[in-house]
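Hi support team,

I've been running sequence recovery on a batch of backbones for a student project. Most finish fine, but this one hangs at about 90% for roughly twenty minutes before it completes. I'm not sure whether the input is malformed or the queue is just slow. I've pasted the structure tokens below so you can try to reproduce it. Let me know if you need the job ID as well.

Thanks,
M.K.
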């Protein structure tokens, strides 16, 4: 029911009986390799490889759930491959044309202007890797676009977003829904980007 609080809706969704497979994109979490600010195509290749592997093991891949940047990758998947019937976009960004407000410090932006790059953070299990943001990547990221017009109506899209998301504004969810008329939108009242309140 649309009257149910979003926390109950998500809990009900997760209580369904099916197998799940969770993985980290390259350079994230426990995965090897490196990541970068604008490696959407590499992550799309990672996702295609995982789906291919599961299908080769005779699993039916019924749904892909992507969160934040990965939600964009999941929607990119739906615009190019048509073998997964349900995509859940959790806190995904529609407009990549500008740097997210508040994402980088004033000092980092000054270093970007002076040197063309800066170290955003350290990552890896032992924080041994540097996440470097370059001016070129920021420019490339601004051109990222999900070709929503190529997603067929046969693929169901569920858009889940927090009304108080402080990283990806909730308006991004409505921008996707306008371009995906068959999609369903679920807004978590008071929920932030990580779905805390």
């Amino acid at each position: 029911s649309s009257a149910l609080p979003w926390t109950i809706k998500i809990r009900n969704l997760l209580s369904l009986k099916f197998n799940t497979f969770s993985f980290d994109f390259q350079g994230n979490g426990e995965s090897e390799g490196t990541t970068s600010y604008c490696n959407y195509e590499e992550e799309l290749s990672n996702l295609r490889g995982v789906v291919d592997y599961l299908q080769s093991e005779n699993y039916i891949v019924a749904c892909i759930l992507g969160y934040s940047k990965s939600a964009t990758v999941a929607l990119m998947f739906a615009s190019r491959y048509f073998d997964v019937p349900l995509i859940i976009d959790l806190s995904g960004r529609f407009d990549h044309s500008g740097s997210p407000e508040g994402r980088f410090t004033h000092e980092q932006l000054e270093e970007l202007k002076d040197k063309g790059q800066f170290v955003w953070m350290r990552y890896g299990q032992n924080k041994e890797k540097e996440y470097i943001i370059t001016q070129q990547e920021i420019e490339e990221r601004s051109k990222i676009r999900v070709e929503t017009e190529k997603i067929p109506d046969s693929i169901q899209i569920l858009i889940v977003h927090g009304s108080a998301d402080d990283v990806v504004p909730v308006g991004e969810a409505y921008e996707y829904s306008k371009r995906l008329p068959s999609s369903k939108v679920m807004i978590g009242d008071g929920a932030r980007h990580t779905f805390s309140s």
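--
Follow-up from support: It reproduced on our side and the slowdown came from queue contention, not your input. The mean pLDDT is 88. No action needed from you.
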